[in-house]
Amino acid sequence: MSAPPLRRDLQPELSGTVLLPGEAEYEHELAGFNRIFEQRPSVVVAAANSADVLTAVRHAAERNLPVAVQSTGHGVAVPNDGGVLISTAAMKGVHIDPTGRTARVEAGVRWGELLRRTAPFGLTGLNGASPSVGTVGYVLGGGHGPLGRSYGYAADRVRGIELVTADGTWRRADPQRNPELFWGMRGGKGNFGVVTSMELELFEVSRVYGGGLFLPGESAEAALRTWRDWTRTVPDEMYSGIALVRFPRRTTVPEPVRGRFAVHLRIAYNGPAVEGERLVRPLRGIAPALLDTVTEMPYSRVGEIHMDPTEPGVYYERSARLAELDDAALSAVLDLVGPDGDCPLPAVELRHLGGALRRPPAHPNAVPYREAAYTVFSGVPVAPHQRAEVARHQQRLIEAVEPWRIGGPFLSFISARENDPDHVRSAYEPDTHERLTALKHAYDPDNLFRFNHNIPPSAERTV
C-alpha cells in the first residue's frame, strides 16, 4: 500500500499527525541528533500518546511495513528507507512519586527534562553524561552515567515498562508480568516493541562534587597513569573518566583550552564535598591545571561535567570494554592518540566502570559483560570530507586495545557504524544473545522492528 492511502486510513484514528515525504513537518520530525544517515521512511507518525503508537504499529503490521522508532535521534542505527517511522518526541509526560521515589516517564522525555522535574524533591535518576539524550533509548541500551558506580546501570533500576509489541498489543513488562520480556527489554535495545513509558527508580542525590580538571597535553602520560592508579583506590561513589581532547578554536570552548590539546578529567563524587576534595587531591597534583571547574554543584547541572556536544550533526562513534588498564594498555592508547601520536581523533575517553556496575541487579537483565573494568570511547562530529579518515583512525583505536577487550562494542555506546550482525552479536555474551534471539522470535517473529541494532528472530527456539 502506498503512503497516501496509509495516511487516509491512519489519520482519523490518531491524535497525532501522519506526515509524508515532501512536507516540511516530515523533514522536521526526522531531524534527530545524529544525522549520519538520510532517513526516507514512506510515512512518519508523530505520535501524541500511547494509543497513537498502538494504532501505528497495528496498521504497519497489517501491511507488513517495517517500523522504526525515534525520540531524540541519538541512537539511530539503520537508515529507514520505505518503512514507517514512529516519532515519540512529543510524548513528554512525567509523573514523580516522591514518596515511592519513582518517576513515570513517557518515551519523548529527555534526561535534562527529567532532572529538572526531580530536583525540587532532592531526587534524581540514573542519567548519562548528556542531558539531551532521551531517557527511554538510554535505558534500553543499559545506561551508564555519573551515578553508575553508586547504583548500577540505568537498566538495573527500572520498575516497569509499557510498550506495544509487533502484534499491535499493549503490554506491561515488570518482574511479575511478562518477566522474560522485562529481562530482555533492559539491554536488548529496541528489538521487542515500541516503549511508550517507563517507571524508573529515583535516588536521594541533590548535589555532587564534580566538574572538569583540564591539564596541559604534555602531562598526558602522567595523567593517564596517575588516574589509572587512583581508580584502583576510590570508593564506589566516585565516578570518573579521562579524555585526551584536541579542542577546536571555537568561542563555545573555554578560553584556557581553546585550540589546544589537553587532558580532560571528568569527576563526579556522590558524597560530601570535603571528602570529594580530599579524594581528588592526587589528580590536582599531576600538573598545574589550565582550568579547574571541580566543585560542589547541584546534581541538575551534572551535564556540564562532560561538555558533550549539543548541536545536531553527523557523529562517528566507536567503543570497547576493557578488562584492565595495565601499563601496556595505557601505552597503546597514548602512542596512538597522545601528544606525539599520529591518530588525530578530536577526542578519546577512558571511563572507570566497576562498583555497582559489576554487581548483578535485583531483577536480572540483558546488560552484558559486567566484569569490565574500563571502557574506551571515541565519539566525534565529522564533516563529509573527514568521514573516511575518522573511521580509519577509530578502527585503529579499537585494534590498539584488542588485547584487553572484553566482547564487542560497549552496549551503551554501540554506534550506527556497528549495526551489522557480527558487531551486535559480539556486544553480548553468547548465552545472552541466544536468549535474546529466542525472545525476539516470541514477540517479533517477522522482525517488524528491524531498524535498530537488530537481533534477528530464530525459529529454532521459543521462550
TrEMBL record:
Residue ranges occupied by any FAD-binding PCMH-type domain in the UniProt entry: 37-205
Keyword Membrane: no
Domain of life according to the entry: Bacteria
Gene3D superfamilies xrefs: 3.30.465.10, 3.40.462.20, Uridine Diphospho-n-acetylenolpyruvylglucosamine Reductase, domain 2
Membrane-spanning intervals of the chain: none
Keyword Oxidoreductase among record annotations: yes
A single MF term (Gene Ontology): FAD binding
Entries under InterPro entries matching the protein: BBE, FAD-bd_PCMH, FAD-bd_PCMH-like_sf, FAD-bd_PCMH_sub1, FAD-bd_PCMH_sub2, FAD-linked_Oxidoreductase, Oxid_FAD_bind_N, Oxy_OxRdtase_FAD_BS
Record-linked PANTHER family: BINDING OXIDOREDUCTASE, PUTATIVE (AFU_ORTHOLOGUE AFUA_1G17690)-RELATED (PTHR42973), FAD-BINDING PCMH-TYPE DOMAIN-CONTAINING PROTEIN (PTHR42973:SF39)
Family membership: Belongs to the oxygen-dependent FAD-linked oxidoreductase family.
Stated name of the protein: FAD-dependent oxygenase
Organism listed in the record: Actinopolyspora mortivallis
